[in-house]
Design brief:
about 550 residues, mainly beta, five-stranded antiparallel β-sheet, about 10% helix, globular
């Protein structure tokens, strides 16, 4: 056949792709109308009107299908995608934190502060502290940047009774950076002593606590408190490990799997000494389902003191700031016990000490066996007068946990140091005493400038500190003029990275508590969004 005549035959022509979506729809409509001769037979049998309606309906469905297919197959233009796919930071509008443990006869202080921002409070914006079971707030923040001080709070008469949680809630302009700190003062409680301080924390579903060493039949007590501030009841599962691995919970009282925490209530404090671990440190894993809980663990060791143990997350790279500087001639030397756990997988780790400089200490860390708590004596690493931080790296990337237990000079009190992330913005501690210190660790390769500000009822008292690369520097705190109680703010300047901080508070008689500092939650990221019709098309 002649190629020319073949190309002139309309039946032999290849269909050309439509130039645009509208053309595609028109072509589909034409093909639907002209390519269905059987519709004529239907029309002849059923009536001309019905046949035309059927033709139109089918044509419309075909055209819509072509349009959807075209939309699915063609990516949006670069300008359209970029306009809607950029994550956006927006200020936090609501914040809830819980101080689950307020124990003892009028010995607790709970302070709150919201940093001053460019957004002034509007009508309805508020921040309050309310004790569990009360309908009236015990305190209301009056303005941004002003500390709410609440002393002499009475929890229970002794450690065997339930505590009374304090719930902090902030909305609107009071929510960004809303910070609440709880401190138990050095008052004799059931034969126990020591100061303890902790940030009040937001609800979560997964917590690891590492380091307490309660023993049944002694005055050493570790109490785990769980509170559900959400609208749904939570079911909590609890696993405990020691140097022998996972502890069988069959004989342990009030612990194990499936602990119910109803909405708006606190679970009976769980006495971890029921595990009878014979004085060896333990690790506690708390997971919640159906809802979230706030959790706090207070470790009390009779005459040896007490402190809160902060929750932590598994990570292959950890840094623990806030190790106090040893004195030249203490009554008895400070003790440092490093506690490690590699849940479920074995690991080897490398240590670095960041004090006057960054060094590799001459400390032997044994191979970490899965699920077994390991302890290492770290007491001889800091030199006299050298505060610092400990960096721990898992050599194979296996996630691990680490805690430093500090027994203060004189042996009168204990403190715990948990790992935290480098500061990405402002961090606050809402309860401090004059003479407390902030330890600043710069783990970056260049010097960092950091602003440390004491805030209270009067004018803030800022100071700018330069921390040389890979060193730790100590800043002594003084209350702002006219303020007896104050908060401290720490903020890296010039987008400095690798800055870590901890507040170390001391009191007469060798009392000590250490709070590693985390970035205050001031903004949240709104995920990138763009149009996508793929869900309407079968895959």
């Amino acid at each position: 056949m002649d190629p020319v005549s073949m190309s002139d035959d309309p039946r032999s022509r290849e269909p050309r792709p439509p130039a645009n979506r509208a053309a595609a729809a028109r072509d589909a409509l034409g093909r639907a109308h002209l390519g269905k001769p059987s519709l004529g037979r239907i029309t002849a049998q059923s009536g001309a009107g019905a046949g035309r309606r059927a033709q139109v309906a089918i044509a419309v469905f075909v055209a819509l299908g072509v349009g959807l297919a075209y939309s699915y197959g063609v990516a949006p233009t670069a300008s359209t995608s970029a306009a809607v796919a950029v994550p956006k930071a927006t200020p936090v509008r609501n914040a809830t934190v819980v101080c689950p443990e307020v124990t003892g006869p009028a010995d607790a202080t709970v302070n709150a502060i919201t940093p001053t921002t460019t957004s002034a409070p509007a009508v309805g914006d508020t921040a309050t502290l309310t004790a569990l079971g009360s309908k009236t707030p015990m305190a209301t923040l009056k303005q941004q940047g002003t500390l709410s001080v609440n002393k002499g709070l009475s929890g229970s008469a002794n450690l065997t009774q339930d505590s009374i949680p304090i719930i902090g809630q902030a909305g609107g302009a009071y929510a960004p950076g809303f910070t609440v700190t709880e401190t138990l003062n050095n008052v004799n409680v059931s034969g126990l002593r020591g100061i303890a301080s902790t940030p009040c924390t937001a609800p979560d579903t997964d917590f690891w606590f590492l380091g307490p060493d309660p023993t049944a039949g002694t005055k050493s007590v570790a109490k785990l408190n769980l509170f559900d501030s959400d609208q749904l009841a939570a079911q909590v599962n609890l696993s405990v490990y020691n140097d022998g691995g996972l502890i069988n919970t069959v004989n342990a009282q009030n612990v194990g799997q499936g602990q119910l925490v109803p909405s708006g209530t606190q679970h009976n404090p769980i006495d971890l000494s029921s595990f009878s671990t014979e004085g060896t440190p333990i690790a506690v894993h708390v997971t919640a389902t159906a809802s979230r809980v706030s959790a706090a663990l207070l470790d009390s060791e009779a005459n040896a003191g007490r402190d809160f143990v902060l929750a932590q997350k598994l990570s292959a790279h950890l840094l623990l700031p806030g190790v106090p500087a040893p004195s030249a001639k203490p009554a008895s030397a400070m003790k440092l016990q490093l506690i490690l756990l590699a849940p479920h997988n074995d690991a080897d780790v490398t240590l670095h000490w960041i004090g006057h400089s960054k060094i590799t200490p001459t400390v032997t860390v044994p191979h970490l066996i899965p699920d077994r708590v390991t302890t290492v004596d770290f007491s001889n690493v800091p030199a006299t007068g050298e505060a610092g931080a400990l960096q721990i790296d898992s050599n194979t990337g296996t996630p691990i946990l680490a805690e430093l237990k500090v027994t203060g000079e004189g042996g009168s009190d204990t403190a715990y140091i948990s790992p935290v992330q480098a500061l990405a913005g402002e961090s606050l501690v809402a309860d401090n005493t004059a003479g407390s210190v902030v330890e600043l660790t710069n783990n970056a390769a260049k010097d960092a400038r950091v602003q440390v500000t004491a805030e209270g009822a009067g004018a803030p008292s800022p100071q700018t500190v330069t921390v040389p690369a890979q060193t730790t520097k100590t800043v002594t705190l003084q209350a702002p003029k006219g303020a007896a109680d104050f908060a401290v703010s720490v903020e890296p300047l010039d987008r400095a990275t690798g800055v870590y901080a901890a507040r170390v508070m001391t009191a007469a008689g060798g009392m000590i508590t250490i709070q590693p500092m985390s970035t205050a939650l001031e903004t949240v990221q709104i995920p990138a969004v763009r149009s996508d019709l793929s869900g309407t098309v079968p895959q």
